């Protein structure tokens, strides 16, 4: 039997909550669904959503090592990206995200 996957949520590393909120909420339009901290001084673990896409952000050491890769297939990505206001960290299809990740838009090959 193969289980039916109903949802995935990539985890991206975050180092600065204010920058993460500015990038994911203010610029990309995500909704901040919730967050968890073990106590007031503990690192943030946040739950975000954009439509049906779920994303988690973690300030916990060891979570989502910077430089890791996640592939997300998105319909009409270029049109959505073109609708966003200018962002100074966007260069030639790459978006520099807080937490040292980079997002790249492209068209999948016939094999992938």
From TrEMBL:
Assigned keywords, A-Z: Antibiotic resistance
Gene3D superfamilies assigned to the protein according to its UniProt record, in alphabetical order: 2,3-Dihydroxybiphenyl 1,2-Dioxygenase, domain 1
Superkingdom to which the source organism belongs: Bacteria
Cross-referenced Pfam families: Glyoxalase_7
Name this polypeptide is given: Glyoxalase superfamily protein
Species, as recorded: Sulfitobacter porphyrae
């Amino acid at each position: 039997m193969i289980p039916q996957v109903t949802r995935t949520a990539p985890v991206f590393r975050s180092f600065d909550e204010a920058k993460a909120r500015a990038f994911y909420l203010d610029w990309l339009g995500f909704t901040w669904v919730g967050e968890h901290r073990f106590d007031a001084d503990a690192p943030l673990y946040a739950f975000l959503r954009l439509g049906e896409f779920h994303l988690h952000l973690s300030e916990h050491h060891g979570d989502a090592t910077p430089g890791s890769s996640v592939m997300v297939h998105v319909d009409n990505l270029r049109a959505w990206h073109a609708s966003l206001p200018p962002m100074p960290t966007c260069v030639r299809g790459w978006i520099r995200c807080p937490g040292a990740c980079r997002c790249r838009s492209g068209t999948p090959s016939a094999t992938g």
